[in-house]
Amino acid sequence: METETIFRIILPLLMITFVAHRGYYVRKHGKEENTLKKREEGSVTKLAGILGIMGFISILVYAINPNLLAWASFALPLWLRWAGLGIALLRFALLQWAQNTLGKSWSDTPRMMKDQALITSGPYRFIRHPIYSAFLLIMGSTLLISANWLIGLSWIGMTVLEIASRIGFEESLMLEYFGDQYRDYMKSTGRLLPKLVQ
Fold first, then answer.
1. Is 166 exposed, middle or buried (0-12, 13-18, 19+ CB in 10 A)?
2. Closest CA to 41 of 88, 135, 108
């Protein structure tokens, strides 16, 4: 089997795995009962949704007939494309660790629930938003795996827009409800990467 064919199989499987993983947690913990306050979706979320649709369609086209997207392809060394898959798999491990650590405190919509605790264990000891960090690198890996800027930039653009909107709201919410406890936590952790100097 040709290497390009392998990537055309891997990329849709990666996205199916991502969607299935997210769907599992939405079904398990997605109930909005006990919500005190949640983010309202605005124009940024709608734009992110459009980019996500573009990303899904472009991956579908790439898997079925990549010649239709040849105009957006660019040359990448084979090792870098495989590294993209490695990055995605490592970030799936981070994503799962973070989801397990949050447990019932996880929500697909940024919100504050009754009796919600501030989670600072697991990957949250080092990063305030490890799930978003994982999302960025999983979606960013599509650029490397496909070697196609339309696919990669659609997913990266969607993820950056959505995460920037979510982080701003979530951190203001955490400061509102947890106050100095969250401020102290912010001093010792990085947003998306571990803080090197404390």
1. buried
2. 108
Between CA 81 and CA 129 the distance in angstroms is 26
* Tens-digit pLDDT profile for residues 29-58: 666 666 555 666 778 888 999 999 999 999
% of the chain at pLDDT higher than 70: 92
Do residues 169 and 39 touch, judged by C-beta distance below 8 A? yes
For residue 184, give every residue at least 6 positions away whose Cβ sits within 8 Å of its Cβ, in sequence order, or none: none
φ, ψ of residue 147 in degrees (nearest 5): 50, 45
Name the DSSP letter for residue 124. G
14/181 Cα distance (integer angstroms): 37
Q: What is the DSSP string of 170-186?
A: HHHHHHHHHTHHHHHHH
Is there a contact between 62 and 8 (Cβ–Cβ < 8 Å)? yes
Q: Give the span between the Cα atoms of 69 and 158, in whole angstroms.
A: 19
Q: Read off the pLDDT band of 109 (50, 70, 90).
A: confident
72 CB contacts (<8 Å, ≥6 apart)? Answer: 58, 148, 149, 150, 151
Q: What is the mean pLDDT of residues 152-178?
A: 92
